[in-house]
Amino acid sequence: MSAVPRSVVIVDDDVAFRDLIRRLLTVQDLVVVADVGTVAEALAAAESLRPDAVLVDVGLPDGDGIELAGRLSRMDRAPRVVLTSTDPAAADGTAISRSGAVGFLPKDELAGDALRQMLVGD
User: N- or C-end of the chain: fewer Cβ atoms within 10 A?
Assistant: First the structure.
């Protein structure tokens, strides 16, 4: 694992899911600096907190997580963006690539090492 803690913002409209992922990432030596439920909150958190990474649900109440990933990826100090969804087919390779996200993981696969590797890049 990385010696330097990495900061992460979680973006999902399900509060229980955000709490679960916060605990999972904390155990993996990542620092969750915010967990938010909307596109607007995600953009504000990313701008003010400058996280190293953002975990983004594809389906959000006020917008599309794939479009949010694109906006985050174009920021001056762009975080690594990982997309997720309960639907394993929610984001295809073309959409992921176009958005600037480093990848997509279905929510039922987030407990493994793949999520940390995508968020941290090591």
Answer: C
Handedness of CA 82, 75, 93, 95 (dihedral sign): positive
Q: Which domain holds residue 80?
A: 6-120
CATH number for the domain spanning 40: value is 3.40.50.2300
Does residue 1 lie in a domain region? no
- At 32-46, the pLDDT tens digits run 999 999 999 999 999
pLDDT value at residue 52: 96
More confident site: 90 or 13: 13
pLDDT recorded at residue 2: 45
Distance of CA 101 to the CA centre of its chain: 9
In a domain, residue 101? The reply is yes
